[in-house]
Known about the structure:
Layout: E1 8-12, H1 17-28, E2 32-37, H2 41-51, E3 57-61, H3 67-81, E4 86-89, H4 107-135, E5 138-143, H5 147-150, H6 156-176, E6 181-188, H7 194-197, H8 200-213, H9 223-233, E7 244-247
Parallel strand pairs: 1-2, 1-4, 2-3, 4-5, 5-6, 6-7
Helix pairs in contact: 1-2, 1-9, 3-4, 4-6
The structure holds nicotinamide-adenine-dinucleotide.
Nicotinamide-adenine-dinucleotide (NAD) binds near residues 37 and 190.
Amino acid sequence: MARLEGRVAIVTGAAQGIGWHYARAMAEEGAKVAIADVLDCGPGADRIARAVQGATVVPHCCDVSDQDQAAGLVKATMDRFGRLDVLVNNAAVFASLAPKRIEEIDVEEWDRVMAVNLRGVFLCARAAVPVMRAQGGGKIINIASDTPLKGVPMMLHYVSSKGGVIGLTRALARELGDDNIAVNALCPGLTLSEGVAATLESRADNLARVRGARALKRDQVPEDLVGAMLFLASSDSDFVTGQSIVVNGGDSLH
Ligand SMILES: NC(=O)c1ccc[n+]([C@@H]2O[C@H](COP(=O)([O-])OP(=O)(O)OC[C@H]3O[C@@H](n4cnc5c(N)ncnc54)[C@H](O)[C@@H]3O)[C@@H](O)[C@H]2O)c1
């Protein structure tokens, strides 16, 4: 049997990029998937439906930084599917960010990155927890990054937001253990997502540096993250919570 048969998942920020790969893999494993994004959600859903025959994938336009929209996302998923087993908090301001020194980051940009990358995780989890608790359990998977673990410079807002995601994951895992809700973080290394690939020229030096620092010396692609995602989403990880799983080809060792 497929590993996620009968499960219902939400993947935020999944109209494109790595989130789309997570959603497709979960649909392939039998899950019904709601994909939420600020982009026109239609194309993302169509792509997944085309890629996975018989997939049930529902697009939902949602700005995760808005509490009403985050609550609406969970409600719409419940109205449609009647349950929620897995929440993947993947939406973030990332690929569009240019490297900047601390003095060049203005307060508006700092606040926007924090609002989406950290508050969005809080808001979506807050909306999902009562539903999962009432069901007797669930899984929350927060997409962090290896950048706070390595102390990557020139993206202070982004790196700080992802460090916050790791802290939130650990604290929430302890808070929700009695509800049988597992909370884990997945920390990708620099990955050739669509957004990264679109700015390949300006990132060439950085990609080469990261490639050279890895134990496994090649570029990371979205497919490299799918196995860890399915592990965290499925019953294979039922006794795993509060962890940060680093998938970066051995760039940093923990
Ligand atoms: N690509 C990498 O190198 C890398 C490395 C480590 C971590 N990550 C993380 O993995 C995730 C996906 O990365 P990616 O490269 O596909 O990023 P991306 O920037 O290409 O995609 C992020 C997605 O989130 C959506 N989004 C942005 N703001 C939103 C909002 N307010 N509400 C809902 N959706 C919103 C975007 O429209 C986009 O589809 C992100 O959390 C990112 O921080 C990426």
